[in-house]
Write a structure and sequence with these properties.
A hairpin with a 7-residue loop joins strand 3 (about 25) and strand 4 (about 35). It is built from eight helices and twelve strands. By secondary structure, the chain is of the alpha/beta class. Helix 7 packs antiparallel against helix 8. About 30% of the residues lie in helices and about 20% in strands.
């Protein structure tokens, strides 16, 4: 666990043969209003809950899960968290919420081939990722959570409902799988991905006055985020 700034904690993903997303906890301790950003890969819930408790976080203070998008490596252990933390709410962008509520798991697996392979590996059943969504996020929403104010930025491209969260005051950008801190971007060949939309989303994130970049995978960046995003965009635009 790493404290990024006071009230934002970073738990590194535990990759296997497929990636596991990073988990972030947002919320000043005294607020008792904590949010988990992207629980991570299926099967990781027990260990991540242990790591959270080792960080002296009261599980009852965690009020919601916010997903940057609903791919398996981000949503996978959501139900594991919900089984342990009572009344945990789920917040997702409106365009992917509909898939979860109807049990359309294309948005989770990205391809039929991947669904079959992963389903066999983890003994998953159809319907395992059918959820009720408590809050359907829209672009421009301001989330007042745990003593922070985050703007929801809709960044389709990696998936149709990908979002980033931007804290203007602290210049913190949580980017999901749209852009990474090692000059990479999220893949654009899965269900609902769109290279043209990815291009627009990269430009959009590059306009923000961000300093700290907290992506879904790989390293995080504690300074120079805006410059890094624009350099990454410049490198990838010819391929989108």
């Amino acid at each position: 666990m790493q404290e990024v700034i006071k009230g934002i904690l970073f738990f590194h993903g535990e990759d296997e043969y497929i990636p596991d997303s990073h988990l972030y906890i947002i919320g000043k301790p005294k607020s008792k209003d904590l949010s988990i950003i992207d629980p991570g890969l299926v099967g990781k819930g027990k260990r991540k809950l242990e790591r959270i408790k080792e960080a002296n976080i009261e599980l009852n203070d965690i009020k919601r899960i916010i997903l940057t998008h609903t791919h398996l490596d981000h949503i996978g252990c959501t139900r594991e968290f919900m089984e342990v933390i009572p009344n945990l709410k789920l917040w997702v962008h409106e365009s992917e919420a509909e898939f979860l509520e109807t049990g359309d798991e294309r948005i989770v697996y990205g391809s039929e081939m991947f669904a079959g392979m992963i389903g066999y590996q983890y003994n998953l059943k159809r319907g395992d990722f059918k959820f009720s969504v408590d809050k359907k996020l829209k672009k421009g929403d301001i989330l007042e959570i745990g003593g922070f104010s985050f703007e929801v930025i809709h960044v389709p491209g990696h998936s149709m409902g990908s979002i980033a969260l931007f804290d203007k005051e602290n210049k913190v950008l949580i980017s999901g799988d749209t852009v990474y801190a090692d000059y990479g971007i999220g893949r654009v060949d899965l269900f609902s991905a769109d290279p043209a939309e990815m291009k627009k989303s990269l430009y959009k994130l590059g306009e923000l006055n961000s300093e700290i970049l907290l992506p879904g995978h790989n390293r995080i960046l504690l300074s120079g985020a805006k410059k890094a995003i624009n350099e990454t965009t410049k490198q990838w635009i010819p391929y989108l």
